Amino acid sequence: MVLTQLENLSVISSSQAESIKKSMENLGMKDAYIQGLQASLAQKDSLNLALVMNLKGAIGNLEDKDINVKVDKGVVFIDISDKLLFKSGSFDVTDHAIVVLGKAGKGKQKPA
């Protein structure tokens, strides 16, 4: 090992070599910790993507640009464009929007 060679040549003392060795071990542990965090974030992103795709598929067509589903900090946001909700110049909700809203709003309801 390079540290042993440096120590043998009296370029560094044994305590300095030990300090360098401990610093390198700490760096290795920090690197492993960072890699673990990155793997966890990648897994979370994959789960969020799967959730978004499943929700969008359950609500409507996956290719529908008028429905956008995203997950941010554990909260699911469903954005439905006004083009899907209303006909131009009207305040009446379209039949298609009623179906989509019914699917998006399905869930556990409190008893009346």
Description of the structure:
The protein has 4 helices and 2 strands, in the order H-H-E-E-H-H. With 112 residues, it is mainly α. It has one domain (2-105). The protein has a two-stranded antiparallel ribbon with strand order 1-2. The longest helix is centred in the first third of the chain and has 46 residues, at 14-59.
Nutshell version of this structure?
This protein has helices spanning 2-8, 14-59, 82-85, 95-105; strands spanning 67-72, 75-80. The protein is mostly helical and 112 residues long. It has one domain (2-105).
Relevant terms:
two-stranded antiparallel ribbon, mainly alpha
Topology overview:
Elements (H helix, E strand, L loop, with lengths): L1 H7 L5 H46 L7 E6 L2 E6 L1 H4 L9 H11 L7
Antiparallel strand pairs: 1-2
Helix pairs in contact: 1-2
Give the proportion of residues in helices: 55-70%
Distance between the termini: 75 Å
Which consecutive residue ranges, at least 5 long each, have pLDDT under 50? none
Note the overall shape: rod-shaped
**Residue-averaged pLDDT, rounded?**
79
Question: Largest beta sheet: what is the strand line-up?
Answer: 1-2
| Structural class assignment | mainly alpha
Main sheet record? 2 strands, antiparallel
